[in-house]
């Protein structure tokens, strides 16, 4: 019998798949570019939830720097689009994202676009999924197969796809090398994450509450860390901007809290390090991911190779939170959900009836 794939398998597949997608970027982003026959749209609206939302957030700093001020970039959830977004126009490039193609909220958003007479374009990892009956255009963003529900490879490949799209639309092809550089840093982070986890295994496997804190370039990885830890380790794990964290959320800190800080190595680095050090005064389980070696004398700091630009920090740091979520949840016995979650899903389902729970954890 074939071995079941795990999160770890897909974490380790991601860089090579992303690099292959860079090579075939004309094929991948071409269909979206074709939707922009009149040039760069005045506004790009990304519509996503869950890890797809976080992947969009990981890509957005790089995207905006490529597209410039002439193109507004917006990220909304499918729920918000369906019920509250009423100012979209045919001049907007609206892309609804769902890796599985089975998310009920994404399907509702596509239907809402059609009702309003707007183009329903969908980015997905499964072009043969249910979305094909609800979208005018279905575009494969290049993730390939990912059976595990706690997606990792899909986050990396979607982030890279959106970055490649922005580089093409913004005529910044030379910046593709920065994406390649980020993948190199990501591999180094992946290699360092295992020994870092082992060094702090008691603290990580003893987490009760975890905060994930980032800055503008690292808010995507902070949000994805909060989601992944929450859904696999099953503990409260909110995400905050570093400065927002110290304006209220920090007041509930105790020595039992875990806090993860993500520094992009830009002009905000000194402030991030100061807030991390302040947190260390309350809890020993405060950890910092940064490209700055000056903080590296503390064992709670994971120092990364230099980033090609702060705009790619979230992409580069993704393996840290992915590996951490996998290691901790595996050490604690897996991702088994409370049995009453079956009742929850029977009342309010997030996926269509064609969804198969490969993880068998509900």
Summarize the structure in short:
The chain has 362 residues and is α/β, with parallel strands linked by helices. It has helices at residues 7-23, 25-35, 50-67, 78-83, 104-115, 153-169, 176-199, 201-205, 219-233, 242-245, 269-280, 313-331, 341-347; strands at 43-47, 72-76, 93-98, 121-124, 137-140, 210-214, 239-241, 258-262, 286-290, 301-303.
Structure write-up:
The chain has 362 residues and is of the alpha/beta class. It has two domains: 7-171, Glucose-6-phosphate isomerase like protein, domain 1 (Rossmann fold, 3-Layer(aba) Sandwich), CATH 3.40.50.10490; 188-331, Glucose-6-phosphate isomerase like protein, domain 1 (Rossmann fold). Helices cover 46% and strands 12% of the residues. The chain is built from 13 helices and ten strands. A five-stranded parallel β-sheet has the order 2-1-3-4-5, sandwiched between helices. Strands 7-6-8-9-10 form a five-stranded parallel β-sheet, sandwiched between helices. α2 (25-35) packs across α6 (153-169). It is globular. The chain starts with 6 loop residues before the first helix and ends in a 15-residue tail after the last helix. The model has no long low-confidence stretch (mean pLDDT 94).
């Amino acid at each position: 019998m074939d071995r079941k794939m795990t999160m770890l398998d897909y974490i380790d597949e991601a860089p090579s798949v992303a690099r292959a997608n860079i090579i075939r970027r004309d094929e991948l982003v071409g269909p979206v570019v074709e939707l922009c026959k009149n040039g760069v749209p005045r506004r790009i609206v990304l519509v996503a939830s869950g890890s797809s939302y976080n992947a969009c957030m990981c890509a957005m700093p790089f995207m905006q720097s490529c597209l410039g001020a002439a193109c507004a970039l917006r990220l909304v959830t499918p729920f918000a689009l369906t019920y509250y977004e009423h100012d979209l126009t045919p001049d907007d490039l609206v892309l609804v994202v769902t890796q599985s193609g089975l998310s009920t909220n994404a399907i509702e958003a596509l239907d809402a676009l059609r009702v309003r007479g707007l183009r329903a374009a969908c980015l997905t990892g499964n072009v043969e999924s249910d979305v094909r009956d609800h979208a005018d255009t279905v575009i494969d963003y290049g993730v390939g197969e990912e059976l595990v529900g706690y997606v990792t490879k899909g986050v990396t490949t979607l982030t890279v796809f959106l970055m490649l799209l922005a580089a093409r639309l913004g005529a910044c092809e030379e910046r593709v090398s920065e994406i390649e550089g980020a993948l190199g840093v990501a591999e180094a982070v992946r290699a360092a994450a295992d020994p870092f986890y082992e060094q702090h295994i008691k603290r990580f496997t003893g987490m009760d509450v975890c905060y994930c804190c980032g800055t503008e370039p690292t808010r995507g990885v902070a949000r994805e860390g909060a989601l992944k830890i929450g859904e696999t380790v099953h503990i409260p794990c909110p995400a905050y901007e570093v400065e927002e964290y110290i304006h209220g959320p920090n007041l509930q800190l105790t020595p039992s809290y875990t806090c993860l800080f993500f520094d992009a190595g830009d002009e905000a680095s000194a402030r991030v390090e100061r807030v991390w050090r302040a947190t260390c005064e309350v809890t020993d389980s405060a950890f910092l991911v940064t490209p700055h070696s000056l903080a590296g004398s503390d064992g709670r700091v994971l120092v990364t190779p230099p980033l090609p630009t702060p705009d790619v920090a979230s992409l580069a740091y993704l393996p840290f939170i992915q590996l951490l979520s996998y290691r901790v949840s595996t050490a604690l016995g897996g991702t088994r959900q409370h049995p009453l979650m079956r009742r929850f899903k029977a009342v309010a389902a997030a996926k269509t009836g064609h969804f198969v729970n490969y993880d068998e954890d509900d």
